[in-house]
Amino acid sequence: MALTDQEKEQIKAMIDRGEKLPARYKSLLFADAPEVELVWQGKTSEVTSVVLPFQSIEQIDEPRQETGKPVDHLFAADRRGRQSGGWTNKLIWGDNKLVLSSLKNGPLRQEIEAAGGLKLIYIDPPFDVGADFSVNLEVGDGEILTKEPSVIEELAYRDTWGRGTDSYLSMMYERLKLMHGLLTEDGSIYVHCDWRVNSAVRLAMDEIFRPENFLNEVVWCYKERERTLDFYNPKHDAIYFYAKNRAARGRPFNWSSAASEYSIVTRGKFKFDDDDGKGPYQIRGRNLQGSPIRAADGLSRTDEAKYPGLTYRDYLAQREGVAPRDWWEISIINKASEERLYYPTQKPQQLVERILAVSSNEGDLVADFFCGSGTTLAVAEKLGRKWIGCDLGRFAIHTTRKRLIGVQRELKAAGKPYRSFEILNLGKYERQYFVGIDPTLPEAQRRVQALQREEHYLTLILTAYQAERLFQMPPFHGKKGAALVVVGPVDAPVTQSQVRELVEECRRKKIAKVDVLGFEFEMGLVPVAQDEARGKGISLSLKYIPKDVFDRRAVERGQVKFYDVAYVELKPAVEKLKAQVRLTDFGVFYRQDDLDSLGETLKPGGGKVTVANGQVVKMIKDKQGVVTREVLTKKWTDWIDYWAVDFHFGSRPEVMRVRSQDGGETEMPTGNFIFENEWQSFRTRKDRKLELASGWHEYDKPGRYKIAVKVIDIFGNDTTKVVEVKV
Ligand SMILES: C[S@@+](CC[C@H](N)C(=O)[O-])C[C@H]1O[C@@H](n2cnc3c(N)ncnc32)[C@H](O)[C@@H]1O
Questions:
Q1: Are both 231 and 83 inside the same structural domain?
Q2: Which end of the chain has less neighbouring CB within 10 Å, N or C?
Q3: Ligand 1 pocket, 345 CB below 6 A?
């Protein structure tokens, strides 16, 4: 269709005035504009290509019985029964946009390709406004607390939903493009949606994957109690199934693993059984030309005797079942479900099992970049697939960690193989990137950039902390009320010696109160540093800088919360070559709601569990309006959800792989060590007990060893401490 003269004039005038042209002109002005296209405010085809190095922070592997030999041809087990070599599964904590871009364009891509490439993606992105980030936590022996989303989670939520469907589509479009780029030619993707977003997501998928690669809209039907009598009850989700390239050879579609049973009527036809272990069968005619019985079914034994060469026995057990349809009836996870975790959007394993079994083969690499409670990863592990999972939420990562340890234990008990997994993040590189330092530059250039950006960084953190900037009093950077404030580096932990020097400086300058803010703190600093400072008359407070400081809107609104660094106390025990550790204390100082204002807002007869002044508190308002409080965290152990021990801490230096100047790649030590999870105890929904003493670990030879203990509290925050033992 050509432009009319009037339209041409209108377009020229609008360009002269510097105005944007209406979207309807797109197909008239551009040669390759698609005939049908989904357009939304802010749509752009630009996709980030940033590459940040991944930091491996934790390695988790349940020791195997096999030591020093191959495990089911997958990899070798070392002397301690741990996986050595082969693919290690990856649980990545971070925004999937940066994660996907770094996987697609960075050095990990080679590892993915060496593992056969990414064959299958299942994603279940947020589609229920508001439901994704609040989670229920259990305190101690079972009281439920609803954890409010952190600002960084709210930020993702706002970026997703801030302008409604527009921003949702912008978020999904870029990520789907990155996923498309990561999949192998014979790979496929399943995108889970419900009625709120399915129409838009389908069109976006058509644009990215092309309509010819659309395979199915799978309808997942379920029953749940909720009902409406205004319109038909929505009791299904849509799952869009696309091939990367439908014509590519080798795309798995193992339909028989999703085949359903025959109907009662069909099964009724298999009416003979000779009790010979082969099961029921029916007698059918061979479809031979000229045969009097051709392809008939339902023949009798008399027919069989009469036409021996023209009939055959059709055994039910040899049939593969009914080829799967595109609608599946699978129950949702309800309160009584065995597999239920405290994750509101958790999907049933049976649903994901079907997807993985049909669209991937054993040993294939599968991924879920919105992994939530880790359903896809748990299923992948059980089905012998390799996996990558990613989530933005700290609590999602923690829930998944516990779940996957459970799966490793389950497989071990059943004598089946399993792989080790590592937890990665973009840690300090992500922070450097946010501050404007390119983390992939050589050290010297990064230092120059860091210096240039220092003032910007300090102002950002101090504004978020609501402190004022001080220029004349180094090493102090700011002032908040009566306390002076020091901001730790963006890419390194605050060390014990830095804190000691600061305390000395405070003593010399007669400063009574100092707050030290850091993204990371050297282990074991708390509470020793505070006790030492107190001895010198100085009140020292160490606080974590949350990632939320990089959200300008959160900073402007004063929403960023700085939490005190927690502490853990341990007692090691040694017997000849064996060692054990015992937890003896743990302390946190969290604040979530202000109790008094909460008391006022509670309705008579209402109640809420909240956090205040470092305790989890249950507030109840009776019918007369009298408010009572009950502290639920009665014991220090009530705060702990999980703890793990590394008996050889320091033996595995962390390295990051970065692109070298010549375009190849090189390994760089980061100065940190990977925490190897050798023993752990944690609470599950079914078992709320927590052991306070670790198992005994036997060393190969006498010597000094570092034992690290990582404690994860009920909010998913972790604290690590190292002790040295001599065996
Ligand atoms: C619907 S839930 C997934 C539930 C999951 N299928 C299960 O069975 O537990 C969506 C998840 O996406 C995560 N998420 C949302 N935006 C994200 C982002 N930009 N990057 C990574 N994860 C994100 C949320 O934290 C949430 O856990």
A1: yes
A2: N
A3: yes
